[in-house]
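Sorry, can you check?
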Amino acid sequence: MDIIVRPLVTEKMNQMGNILNKYGFMVHKEATKLQIKREVEKLYNVKVADVNTIVQRGKRISRYTKTGILKGRKSSYKKAIVTLAEGHKIDFYSNI
């Protein structure tokens, strides 16, 4: 099971990374805080101070088309916000 699905790279998460040293990841729904901490430390060679998790519920969506209104739902996912120890940073753009 892959614990980390992908990093969350948004304007808000970039600001949190620069100012508060916090980074966001989309993680597997059954992942625990300890598993997330170990995985981030192993992948990015950093020291994790704290992990907060959020289960983001899927949003309802509707779209108007020629054939009528299509209604559906986006998938729900689990989000982890990881606080790194002082002096550690993650650079998501170094692999591009």
Notes: The mean pLDDT is 93. The chain has one domain: 4-87. Helices lie at 11-19, 33-44.
